[in-house]
Design brief:
mainly beta, nine-stranded antiparallel beta sheet, 1 helix, 9 strands
Length: 133
């Protein structure tokens, strides 16, 4: 797994995930500078095909992806649209990729500061966690 990748195992099956960076604009950023790709797994650890995700699949990585974009929410600098899963997932690998920008320090800053918001499939509980340990 690359240094811009992180894995998460959830305490419950998840129906959707959205990503965000809290705080103010800490790094220079334009829409589509960076994107995040996903690989997902069921409760048995079996990798699921990209079709289980509502996000489009990028030809460059052959994985579902979401762009990071500036947020209109107070206290949130960057965010993504929610990715929904059917069937539900139990774990995910996330990788931040440069797209229009190739600034390694900004890429590292985003990767180290990224949070995820997951919604439990059955109970609709919310779980927020920092993606990088």
């Amino acid at each position: 797994m690359s240094e811009n990748s992180h894995s998460a195992v959830f305490p419950f099956e998840v129906s959707s995930i959205a990503l965000f960076l809290p705080g103010e604009a800490l790094v220079p950023f334009q829409f589509r500078d960076f994107l995040v790709t996903f690989r997902f797994f069921n409760a048995e650890g079996v990798e699921l095909p990209p079709a289980v995700c509502s996000a489009p699949v990028t030809e460059a990585f052959n994985e579902p992806f979401v762009y990071l974009k500036e947020s209109g929410v107070e206290g949130v600098f960057l965010e993504t649209n929610a990715a929904r899963f059917n069937p539900y997932i139990k774990s995910v690998d996330l990788t931040v990729h440069p797209w229009k920008s190739h600034d390694a320090s900004v890429l590292d800053s985003i990767t180290d500061s990224l949070y995820a918001h997951a919604i439990a499939a059955e109970s609709k509980e919310n779980l927020v966690w920092k993606v990088a340990p």
